[in-house]
From TrEMBL:
Coiled coil, from the record: none
GO biological process assignments: actin cytoskeleton organization; cell-cell adhesion
InterPro entries registered for this protein in UniProt: Alpha-catenin/vinculin-like_sf (IPR036723), Talin_IBS2B (IPR054082)
Annotated Talin IBS2B domain residues: 8-119, 129-241
UniProt entry keywords in alphabetical sequence: Cytoplasm
Pfam families registered for this protein in UniProt: Talin_IBS2B
Cellular component, GO annotation: cytoplasm; focal adhesion; plasma membrane
SUPFAM superfamilies xrefs: alpha-catenin/vinculin-like
Official protein name in the record: TLN2 protein
Source species of the chain: Chunga burmeisteri
A GO term, aspect molecular function: actin filament binding
Localization annotation: Cytoplasm
Principal localisation: cytoplasm
Amino acid sequence: CYRENILKTAKALVEDTKLLVSGAASSQDKLAQAAQSSANTITQLAEVVKLGAASLGSDDPETQVVLINAIKDVAKALSDLIGATKGAASKPADDPSMYQLKGAAKVMVTNVTSLLKTVKAVEDEATRGTRALEATIEYIKQELTVFQSSEVPEKSSSPEESIRMTKGITMATAKAVAAGNSCRQEDVIATANLSRKAVADMLTACKQASYHSDVSEEVRERALRFGTECTLGYLELLEHVLLV
């Protein structure tokens, strides 16, 4: 029942995405309507996904987290897409903002597809761990793209904060190795959830610290490079766990 509702609402959201993209080239009224429609649809989708997660029961919290993370990714992608649409409104087809819009739309569709795959996998206990890991790998790749962009973070933080966040990577690495050895679905799902948070926190802290007022351009470049290398190395580890 929940799966059908999620599928139906997700399809409506994909249609809203198309209207948003086409709305950038049309009137402000049409753009506003498309934005409002997508906001209503994502609210409905979040509700049915939450109901679906609740139906799993409290004895499987890690899988509930996987579902909630999937809808959070869709909501974030939609927010980015609406922002990109506003930036591209009334601009010529070859304007850089149009390329950003197409990129945001692609991420949006990727995340909706990922949500639907996750919903399907939840019904099959044998594939839950694999799907959770695949979704986490995709999420980390998207976070790395944001990290590597030229966008300056809204706030800076101390280098100490960045160092503190690397401890999460160490813990997640140990968990990933253990999951690779045990191959138990619940261990793999827990690894996926922990990895997602650990890497995202590290990337945020690293970028914020690299823009601290005391940091030179050379040190900033090194910090950003090492943040990227750390993430790529961790992705490689998760790919190995997935293979196992």
